Amino acid sequence: xxxxxxxxxxxxxxxxxxxxxxxxxxxxxxxxxxxxxxxxxxxxxxxxxxxxxxxxxxxxxxxxxxxxxxxxxxxxxxxxxxxxxxxxxxxxxxxxxxxxxxxxxxxxxxxxxxxxxxxxxxxxxxxxxxxxxxxxxxxxxxxxxxxxxxxxxxxxxxxxxxxxxxxxxxxxxxxxxxxxxxxxxxxxxxxxxxxxxxxxxxxxxxxxxxxxxxxxxxxxxx
Length: 222
Known about the structure:
mainly alpha
């Protein structure tokens, strides 16, 4: 059956208002940070805002979907961390505005700009979610430290102090996550004379232990 000639073709507006990657708008302020530095700082802070918002949604995803014997403990931990990330995002957006910038923090802006990899969606039980989150939290922590250096290079100690505070809290939750996965200490360095370390002798053949055992407990050494 043919379409009537005068019938308008249906169009989807799903992507019509999709944000582009344009830089944030700037507004007049009497803040004495030089204009060029302020623009760079706004770009930096918006990048951290995108990363933080992305990681927040990933943490809520884990909070809703985690299964297994550790469900309730991890359900609460993930929710607590998500609350912290929400506060971080709010502080970042407010700092952008204080510098005369536009905080670009919608969901679509976040998806366009985040540097955080997508969380794995094939995981089910607690240790799998913990490892998936820990990997992405470690990326975010490293990016925050880079942001501290960049803020100092642009003569803004206040932004550097803010990022330092956020970095400290993110590191704390990285510790909380990794503590669920750590089973044994890393192996000591080998002797300079070429001998194997004590830990390698126990394992045999000098094999390195796996980083994490997803959902399994390590075999006890006899």
